[in-house]
Amino acid sequence: MSKPDAGAKRTRLSPDERRQQLITLGAQMLRERSLEDVSVSEIAEQAGISRGLLFHYFPTLGDFHLAIIAHANAELLARTTPNPELPLADMLRDSIERYVDYVEENRTPYLALLRGPASASPELVTMVNAHRLAQVQRILAEAPIPVQDSDMPRLTLAIRGWIAFVEETTLTWLREAPIPRAALIDLLVDSLPALALNSTLAAALRD
């Protein structure tokens, strides 16, 4: 990663701008290494500040890590935002394709976040779960399936299960690549309507 020039080091930033700069630098570094290997010293050097000053913006290393992950989660949600101009099936495929693009570009942190030592952090688990809930709410907002209030918990649980399926399947594909990328996308795309429909039909059959 290239270092800023001397002019960049002399740039005065507001506290909010400096904080965002540090988070952005951390997120860029996260693309190349696991969260545990993000170097505070390197980031401070690139920002043109002292290592100690970084902790003026983030009281602890854990706080800095959480800010980086929050940034990465927001970026992933933004990258996979459904395109409302597309038909529903194409909207899902487009989002999945951009999701796979993202995890391919961020392979190391994606693997480390879901399976590395940081995945055991209670704060990080809470943040990742909030990210998953945002994905569930996005899917439910676009789903054309009429659902009674009594069936919503079942459908929500089914979609949470699908998200876990997507994560685990993508992790395995990143490590082993047992099928082509196009086949992976087909698998992920086809599984959501099947799961949601089966969940809804099963609820209807009970009535």
SSE arrangement, N to C: HHHHHHHHHH
Globally, the shape reads: elongated
Beta-strand residue percentage? under 5%
Mean residue pLDDT: 81
Tally of DSSP β-strands: 0
* Class derived from helix and strand content: mainly alpha
State the separation between the terminal residues, measured CA to CA: 60 Å
Give the biggest beta sheet.
none
**Integer-rounded radius of gyration:** 20 Å
Residue ranges: pLDDT <50 for 5 or more in a row? 1-10, 201-207
Helical fraction: over 70%
Number of helices: 10
How would you portray this structure in words?
The chain is mainly alpha-helical. The chain is 74% helix and 0% strand. Helix 2 packs across helix 3, helix 6 (88-105) crosses helix 10 (181-206) and helix 9 (152-176) packs antiparallel against helix 10 (181-206). The termini are far apart. Mean pLDDT is 81; it is low at 1-10 and 201-207.
Secondary structure layout:
Layout (H helix, E strand, L loop, with lengths): L5 H4 L5 H16 L9 H8 L3 H7 L3 H19 L8 H18 L1 H9 L6 H21 L9 H25 L4 H26 L1
Provide tags for this entry.
single chain, 207 residues, mainly alpha, 10 helices, disordered C terminus
Compact description:
This protein is mainly alpha-helical and 207 residues long. The protein contains 10 helices and no strands.
